[in-house]
Design brief:
The chain has 5 helices and 17 strands. It has 246 residues and is α+β, with helices and mostly antiparallel strands. The protein has 3 domains: 2-57, no CATH class; 62-150, Immunoglobulin-like (Sandwich); 158-245, Immunoglobulins (Immunoglobulin-like, Sandwich), CATH 2.60.40.10. Strand 10 and strand 11 form a beta hairpin.
Length: 246
């Protein structure tokens, strides 16, 4: 905190020097000339600046993944929903998302998730979960990595979300899946089905009873690839579920 103050104090000094001659500031100085009031005004400006700095400092983060030979660096990345990941890769390397089983077996069969072209590209992390990826031509050499994505703390109330249990059972080839929600009380909710770009494919209002609730989710015919199922209860979002379609 001391370092932040040292960085901010020159900013406040320059601000006072630049705008100290302004008529409005002169009026305020004459009206509130008591030293205690002037100190209070300066502290208020300082506090407002720090608040804005903290607000924008908590925005989404940009991560960079590179390669060193046949290794991704970092191989394991921790990030939040909304963060951006930039792949800076050699021209003969790409990155495609695969299932955990495919990743473990050093195979290169895509699960229709994200696909970064040879040389690199950028993806935006839109849902919580673990993303497994490999370099397509070099998966057999164990050139792979994973991104562990957690929900953004400014969008999901973890204490509230912990009261609910959400699970999705589905066969990637079937047009329907089963959404199960365990709710502590009777309440209103809604689920939204979207693709990784954020385009909404389907949504439905639901009424939850206390205990187990089961709903059938119909997947649109254009929904091959990775889908995100977001449940909202009383206006509060729960962590999204990733669904794989073929």
């Amino acid at each position: 905190m001391k370092q932040v103050r040292l960085l901010v104090l020159p900013f406040i000094t320059n601000w006072l020097m630049r705008y100290g001659h302004h008529p409005l500031f002169a009026v305020l100085s004459q009206r509130f000339s008591h030293p205690t009031i002037l100190i209070f005004m300066t502290r208020t400006i300082f506090t407002l600046f720090l608040s804005c700095w903290a607000l924008f400092g908590a925005a989404q983060t940009r991560h960079v993944i590179t390669n060193s030979g046949f290794l991704f660096t970092p191989a394991d990345l921790n990030a939040n929903v909304g963060d951006t990941v930039v792949f800076n890769l050699g021209g003969n390397h790409n990155a495609i998302e695969v299932s955990e089983t495919t990743w473990t077996n050093n195979d290169a069969t895509s699960n229709n998730g994200f696909s970064v072209p040879f040389g690199g590209g950028t993806i935006v992390l839109s849902a919580a979960g673990t993303l497994y990826y490999v370099c397509e031509p070099h998966a057999g050499l164990a050139m792979k990595g994973k991104i562990i994505v957690t929900g953004a703390t400014n969008s999901i109330d973890r204490t509230f979300a912990s009261r609910f249990q959400v699970s999705v059972t589905q066969n990637p080839l079937n047009p329907e899946g089963v959404l199960k929600i365990v709710s502590p009380t009777a309440t209103a909710g809604r689920y939204t089905l979207s693709d990784v770009s954020g385009r909404v494919l389907a949504e439905r209002s639901i009424q939850l009873a206390g205990g187990d609730n089961v709903f059938m989710v119909t997947f649109p015919p254009v929904s091959a690839g990775v889908l995100l199922l977001q449940v909202t209860v009383d206006g509060d979002p729960l962590p999204a579920s990733r669904i794989f379609r073929q």
